[in-house]
Amino acid sequence: MLNRNYIKVLKLLGIDGSVSQAEMLVSTLGGFVGIFFISWISFYFTGAGGAALIVPSMGASAVLVFAVPHGKLSQPWALVGGQLVSAAVGVACYQLFPDMLYLASGLAVGLAIGAMHLLRCIHPPGGATALVAVVGTAQIHELGFGYVLTPVLLNTIIILTVAIVFNSFFPWRRYPVTMMRFSDKPSSKEKKSFRYIDKENIDRALSDLDVVVDLSADDLQNIFALALEHAQSPTFDASQIILGHYYTNSKHGAEWSVRQIIDEHKSDDANKDMVIYRVVEGQGLKNSDSCTRTEFARWVVRELYPAE
């Protein structure tokens, strides 16, 4: 009873316990590396200090690109476009109303949100970037529209570069998300209609809800498909293990792995029905081994498809 109430409280507060410790550690390290390089490189090139060296909102951007690298609001266009347009809007509002900071502040954040919507680059830290342009120090105000280039553009380029390089070291992560080599979605030739809700229908549903969610229609499609798979097939059947196809164990963090079936020896005897596989991503990369088709099926959680 106590455990059930505890779970209800966690759900009420919006606390998610599904992230692995490895993922937490990688996100923590990523945030440190990103902000370290922003500070170091910015100081090296500008010699400036304080807010003129690093925009405070970069801390929030670091949370997105390192803790939620596959999120819609974390992607490169959202990061770069959101930060730059917000910086420009903030500077313009301050210059129009330098003696009315309360008005300039509200306009800066409100118009920044509107501009990000129009340009399809919603990035929450952009609101803080716009606000700093208004309520920042005299050093910031003296920069004028130079604030957009230094520190905002410089900071953004650095954190974008670090995010791409850093996330590439962890095979279950890729930034931007389009760099993922494998997808849960089959190609159009292999598509199984009963497992997938059309992307167009998801787009219509999002339009009906008229809300911004930090997931793309493709992400939602994959989530729905996986949920249906789990509901309909709690275990993977050995007959679904096919030569040339890719499979994953869906483990979190460093235990994540993708294997491809590269050869097989079929037999009606389950103990002699063998497959040979190669690890193509994640733990054990480039290793090859063999096992029975049944043993391989027990390892598999779902099939993956090469990204189109």
UniProtKB/TrEMBL annotation:
Pfam families: TM_HPP. The keyword Lyase does not apply. Residues 19-176 form the HPP transmembrane region domain. The chain crosses the membrane at residues 21-45, 76-97, 103-122, 153-172. Keywords: Membrane, Transmembrane, Transmembrane helix. This is HPP transmembrane region domain-containing protein.
